[in-house]
């Protein structure tokens, strides 16, 4: 039986490397436990994820934080229209998954774990 895939420590969004770290839930990067994930929008972008999340929450938080990175790299702001946001994300997510097969496998593993958990409930 294969080991569960690990969340990659780095992924690429276009030409930008994004560093991903799993940190203790009470890490200062997570406001001492007040938040489940954070994104530092500077080059290279850094994502910090709490180590105290179930598979569903981990999937949601990783996706959420990577969304912040995409928005920052594409310079999306409050003035961006819904169509601009949809256009950026419609291009970014497929490119992200194609360029980062380890992330794609991790997402698939998390989704399958959630499905299994739901079917056992």
Q: Kindly state the mean pLDDT as a whole number?
A: 95
For the CA atoms, what is the radius of gyration? Answer: 15 Å
Query: What is the total number of structural domains?
Result: 1
Provide the succession of SSEs: EEEEHHH
Strand order in the largest sheet: 1-2-4-3
- State the low-pLDDT regions, or none: none
Shape: globular
Number of strands: 4
End-to-end C-alpha gap: 24 Å
The count of helical stretches stands at 3
How would you characterize the overall build of this protein?
It contains 3 helices and 4 strands. It has 121 residues and is α+β, with helices and mostly antiparallel strands. Strand 1 and strand 2 (16-23) form a beta hairpin. Helix 1 (55-73) packs antiparallel against helix 3. It starts with 9 loop residues before the first strand and ends with a helix.
């Amino acid at each position: 039986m294969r080991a569960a895939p690990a969340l990659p420590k780095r992924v690429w969004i276009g030409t930008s490397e994004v560093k991903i770290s799993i940190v203790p839930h009470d890490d200062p990067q997570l406001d001492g436990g007040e938040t489940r994930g954070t994104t530092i929008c500077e080059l290279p972008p850094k994502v910090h994820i709490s180590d105290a999340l179930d598979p569903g929450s981990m999937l949601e938080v990783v996706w959420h934080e990577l969304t912040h990175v995409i928005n920052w790299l594409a310079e999306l702001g409050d003035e961006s229209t819904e169509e601009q946001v949809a256009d950026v994300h419609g291009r970014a997510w497929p490119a992200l998954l194609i360029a980062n097969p380890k992330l794609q496998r991790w997402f698939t593993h998390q989704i399958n774990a959630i499905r299994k958990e739901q079917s056992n409930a």
